[in-house]
Amino acid sequence: MSSSELGTENCDFPTTAPAANPVFYRTYSRKTISGRESWSEVSSRNLQGLHSLGSLNEEEIELMARMQTEKKALPSGRWLWIGGTEWINKEKNFSGAYNCTSTNLVDWEAFGLMMDLAMMGCGTGAIIEPHLINQLPEIRNIIEINSVSEIGITKPEERQEKTSFKINDNEVTIKVGDSRRGWVDSYQLLLELSSDKNFNSNKILVNIDLRDIRPAGESLKGFGGMANPVKLKDLYPRISRILLKSLGRKLTSIECCLLIDEAAVTIVAGNIRRSAGMRQFCSKDIEASGAKENLWHQDPEGNWCIDPEKDALRMANHTRVYHTRPSLSVVTEAVTKQFHSGEGAIQFAPEALARSNSDILSTKELKEKFIQIYCEEGRQEAERWLKSNHESIDEYELNHRLSRYGLNPCGEILGADFHCNLAEVHLNQINPSDSQAQFDAFRAAGLSVACLLNHRFEVERYRKSRSLDPIVGVSFTGLFDFFVHAFGTPWLQWWEAGRPDSDEGKSFKKQEAEYLQTWKDTVNKTVWDYCDRHSLRRPNRCTTVQPAGTKSLLTGAAPGWHPPKAQRFIRRITFRKSDPVAMACMDYGYTIVPSQSDKDDKGRLLNDPFDPRCTEWLVEIPTEVSWANIPGADEIEINNFSALAQFDFYMQVQTHYTEHNTSATIEFRENEIGPLSKAIHEAIQQNKGYISAALLARFDANATFPRLPFEPINEKTYQDLQANVLKRRVSKDFFEALSKYDLGELTEAGPAGCDSDKCLLPLAKPN
């Protein structure tokens, strides 16, 4: 039974994308007075927002509308959700239009800003190296949470939106305001109290008044969704315990990380917002490199458990920053560590900085000279060298330029204190022989990201950063699918052989590079032309490849540049418990299980989705790729694609298309540690363009993690699951099924801060 036999009535999406309806109505369709938005209504709304913000002409709008209708080029998932709404037109909410951000941790405000960003659904990155966090104040005072009130006692009309506080000797009462900023200010105030010299290193008794906070189930105006402050009461004592451990000194890198992540846990609870983070640590930070080791383990009965003190660390990816070229032994140690724990990812900062300064390092020779000086003589000498060649650059800009190795949660954007907007081309929707369609798609995507450069941020550090370094990111998804359709089964067989450097292989790589280079040139020309016409500073890097986990499901694309997990697999999509869209999925025939986040009091995963302790659901959807039934394609074992083949393809993209970084997850087995380490080391040594990539251990089916987003299945299992879906199906029309449960409010609040399920994988080898 093919996926086309399971098509729906009134479907806006390809029949090869069975997860499209659940994902679209969960993530991008807003509730209006006339009901939920259709795809055409979402497109109309977000394009109107781009038209207004970007002063686009009619030809540009018509092109972008056609590309959205054909699902060939889409704005960021964030903009699909929020673009064109009244909320996003307010300056204080501009950040809510961006998936990708990074903030340097230099003061308490940075922590508050990161919580604020996370509450708007933004992905948050942070560099947590000593030269930054050493600027934070020393923890001087003991913060003791004396009391925390019940939530939601005050009548709605009497609630205050702003957080206020009163001080009586050593006792402080914080009345938390019923707003995004109210939550953030109460969190930041607690941090500020810990270092406040006015309390003379004494104990501070803190009373938390949550009576004005709206209870679970009330709607959130503006951004959207439902209130669910289930973890808010726990936030304050958990923060105080972290601060207590650092009394009399400054915070360690992991303590900084935990302070950010505990706020993220509070926000994510019950799917108020989905969140993602990136934390960048010094390469010599031993504590950070092992922070998530043994995060998960199995008890004697085989139940999966997680260390409650480390649970919050799941909120972010951890990366170690190298400012010099690491030796082969160091790289091998890092790759080995990643195989066993998922920790220890390497970022080569000099390459990131060289790319982020491509406007002044405009030739291969200048770029390599900069990297050489930075690696061999250090940051200070690199700064002097840049200054000697560019005397007009002042000290502030020079420092900014040498700080542009900050990453967003999945590592595809480079910058310092940045916001970056992403658009995405769905290559699986485009005929490889149709060069006009490719040009149109990448041009439409370039226009989409360029429009948001007109935002002027309220927060000074972000506003100044954009004025110096405006950045955008045009990505694509479905590259693997595109090349299968372009080159056929022989290309898959070449992959299976490890992408060898044969005559056939050289021909394939030449053609791959030509496609990639053409697309990059189209993006740059489009963005730079737009900026010139609108008197905006040109970005010096415009292309990237994001993980593309969620938006790819709208067309059934293999995510980003990656191969799919298999020709056929179970795709698991996260929902809040009892979400109307999830309930519709049940009527549509899909099965539901509790998510990874739902555990009993011993840390064991729950099995019953209707268990009162369950807060999140996973909807399981049998899926088949668009080329699964091409003659010979089904015989290719994707799970056996070597790590070196993946790395080679990733570097093709990194070299010929990407100007930021290419988000990558290389899957590898233990016997591939040596060859993969050598490949990474050589790429760094020879200035081939490597910056960072995530490495994920690949295990056999009998040694896997529980309830992952993807579970490969064979053809028979797929056919059986599809047949069972049909047997359980109550309605052929998904929207009709949804209307039975949709009571008029969204329970989700837009796309995740990072458009990938990889960001929250429990990267730890099973015991």
List the topology elements.
Elements: H1 20-27, E1 31-32, E2 35-36, H2 39-54, H3 58-69, E3 73-74, H4 77-82, E4 100-102, H5 108-119, E5 123-127, H6 130-133, E6 142-148, E7 164-168, E8 171-175, H7 180-194, E9 203-209, H8 232-245, H9 253-268, E10 277-282, H10 286-289, E11 296-298, E12 304-306, E13 316-322, H11 328-341, E14 345-348, H12 349-356, H13 364-377, H14 379-389, H15 395-401, E15 406-407, E16 414-415, E17 419-426, H16 435-451, H17 460-468, E18 472-477, H18 479-487, H19 489-496, H20 503-533, E19 568-576, H21 580-587, E20 591-594, E21 616-624, H22 643-656, E22 665-668, H23 673-685, E23 694-697, E24 710-712, H24 715-728, H25 734-739
Parallel strand pairs: 4-5, 5-10, 6-9, 8-9, 10-13, 13-14, 17-18, 22-23
Antiparallel strand pairs: 1-2, 3-17, 4-17, 7-8, 11-12, 15-16, 19-21, 19-24, 20-21
Helix pairs in contact: 2-3, 3-16, 5-7, 5-9, 7-8, 8-9, 11-23, 12-13, 13-14, 16-20
Give keywords.
b-12 dependent (class ii) ribonucleotide reductase, Chain A, Domain 2; eight-stranded mixed β-sheet; b-12 dependent (class ii) ribonucleotide reductase, chain A, domain 3; alpha/beta; globular; 15% strand; four-stranded mixed β-sheet; 767 residues
What does this structure look like?
Helices cover 38% and strands 15% of the residues. With 767 residues, the protein is α/β, with parallel strands linked by helices. Strands 3, 4, 5, 10, 13, 14, 17 and 18 form an eight-stranded mixed sheet that branches. A hairpin with a 5-residue loop joins strand 11 and strand 12. Helix 8 (232-245) runs antiparallel to helix 9 (253-268) and helix 13 (364-377) runs antiparallel to helix 14. The chain is globular. The two termini are 38 Å apart. Residues 1-10 and 757-767 have low confidence and may be disordered.
